[in-house]
Amino acid sequence: MGGCFSKPKPVELKIEVVLPEKERGKEELSASGKGSPRAYQGNGTARHFHTEERLPAPHPYPGAQDCVEAAICHVKDLENGQMREVELGWGKVLLVKDNGEFHALGHKCPHYGAPLVKGVLSRGRVRCPWHGACFNIGTGDLEDFPGLDSLHKFQVKIEKEKVYVRASKQALQLQRRTKVMAKCISPSAGHSSSTNVLIVGAGAAGLVCAETLRQEGFSDRIVLCTLDRHLPYDRPKLSKSLDAQPEQLALRPKEFFRAYGIEVLTEAQVVTVDVRNKKVVFKDGFKLEYSKLLLAPGSSPKMLSCKGKEVENVFTIRTPEDANRVVRLARGRNAVVVGAGFLGMEVAAYLTEKAHSVSVVELEETPFRRFLGERVGRALMKMFENNRVKFYMQTEVSELRAQEGKLKEVVLKSSKVVRADVCVVGIGAVPATGFLRQSSINLDSRGFIPVNKMMQTNVPGVFAAGDAVTFPLTWRNNRKVNIPHWQMAHAQGRVAAQNMLAQEAEISTVPYLWTAMFGKSLRYAGYGEGFDDVIIQGDLEELKFVAFYTKGDEVIAVASMNYDPIVSKVAEVLASGRAIRKREVETGDMSWLTGKGS
After folding, report:
1. How confident is the prediction for the chain on average, in pLDDT?
2. What CATH number is associated with residue 72?
């Protein structure tokens, strides 16, 4: 460990006003040096183009601004591999010492605001302790997901063995940096029936693909189309915060899309893809030609097939409107959740403070059994029971009974009858690829789109990403898998964009997911399908534990609660290509994990 961290006395502080005109000019130009994109207009069909007139979010260098420079420590205050969060002027910075060099960065993860000082420093990057996003310490750039923005990188200099950091007031306060992007210079943008890049699906994969293209200097037309009525939003929050409004969930403000020439077609359903003529057809008959195509349609939730399935007040959670209606109907009434997977359990946890009663119906013995194992599942089940959730396990719904057309009772195959005014169904999903069945794009027997490591389908120029694909998982011997995780969709969208630009990128990220219930977060990294043993360290009853999932002699996944940053550390080890052996986790000695970054 390093020595005592202390500020030199006296602290040397400089504040000045600067006019970084050169920096402003650099950011305002597109890749071609031309100006801002054209305004979008509809083309006479039933398309909804978002065409707001405001400018992008405040620029990191908006003109005259305050800057601060201070000596914040002695060069010997940090050892190699150490990080410290230090105060500077109007905010804080993350100070990192790596290979003898100091780096100063934004101190919070732009995704959900996690303190990066509690993360993992390894291989020239810092990994977020909460959700696994990775940032290059030399540039601040986002290298692995989730999230869209990077960190600010601040100037560092060494004088008389003191470390000085210089930063602008705005950068210290914003704690996020959007990468420089090209702007659309296509003269036909918004008026033509053809586009250079068409992206079907505006979830994480679709949005990241569009942003990556602009970040890489692509300045031709990009069109995103979505079934939703909203611009891209944070879908994982739907089941964790059911009363969140669309504007609260938005991943980017409306003006962002216009500023960078990313057209968004909402309520746009693709019904046919003609790969021979490079054309898609929408439900209303509108046709759009493309040069490159990304398929990121996501998945469709499964519904119940029992008697009474048509009654009112039975929902799946796919849109903000779905979630909002569930909350309104559940207040002070009886709620039933069918399915004890992540979505179902998140909904159940949220409704405990809203509904009169919350019941969960599940076919398995314990929640999360196939994913987290019996012991972890039982510990989480007990947490729910302590929060007045009633479980009906090892049974299914046989009938939904209504009164005046509205749900009143859920009848189980075990013959039990559960009072219900609203029911949420979370029993899985299927890939939303029905519109591809008549195309020459390959689908597997379950309807997924197989892709290679470059996210390419069997058709040249057609890529696919997100929940609807199967792809080779590098560190599991290229096994073809489907991983419907928010983080994975980000990574796949970026790889698809890079390969549209012939960069020959390959998907190599380690899967990372999380859930939040009753104020507690469970984190998970790896791919644990087929695990044959679970090694648990810590205390399951106290919900302070780490669980290692093994297959044979190898650790293939890890889950934890109240044990940060263990999951991020394991993810970083797996990302480095190193195998973790079962014997390493059986002893309880985790020095191999908790030491300095690999």
Report:
1. 89
2. 2.102.10.10
pTM, full prediction: 0.88
Give me the residues paired with residue 262 across strands: 222
Of 310, 263, 208, the closest CA to residue 48 belongs to 263
Q: Which structure tokens are listed for 297?
A: 């349609």
d(CA 421, CA 537): 41
- Of the residues 373, 392, 427, the one at which a domain ends: 427
**CB distance 517 to 337 below 8 Å:** no
The residue type at 300: S
Question: Please, what is the angle between helix 342-351 and helix 374-385, to 10°?
Answer: 20
Same domain, 527 and 489: no
Dump pLDDT digits (tens) for 252-278: 999 999 999 999 999 999 999 999 999
Q: What is the DSSP string of 129-154?
A: TTT--EEETTT--EEESS-S-B--EE
* Structure token digits, residue 575: 């990302």
Q: Which residues contact 237 (CB under 8 A, 6 or more apart)?
A: 244, 249
Boundaries of domain holding 147: 13-30+59-174
Q: Among residues 57, 72, 2, which one has the least CA distance to residue 27? A: 57
> From the first residue on, what is the mean pLDDT of each consecutive set of 10 residues in the chain (598 residues)?
36 40 33 31 35 36 68 95 94 96 98 97 97 98 98 97 95 93 78 86 99 98 97 97 96 96 97 97 96 98 96 97 98 98 98 98 97 98 98 98 97 97 98 97 98 99 99 94 98 99 97 96 97 97 98 98 96 94 89 55
Q: Give yes or no for a contact between 56 and 255, defined as CB atoms under 8 angstroms apart.
A: yes
Q: How far apart are CA 209 and CA 200, in angstroms?
A: 11
What DSSP state is assigned to residue 185? -
Cα–Cα distance measured from residue 289 to residue 291, given in angstroms and rounded to the nearest whole number: 7
- For CA atoms 500, 505, 511, 514, give the dihedral sign: negative
Sheet architecture: strand order including 125-127: 120-122, 125-127, 134-136, 142-144
Strand-pair category, 134-136 with 125-127: antiparallel
Residue at 64 is within a domain: yes
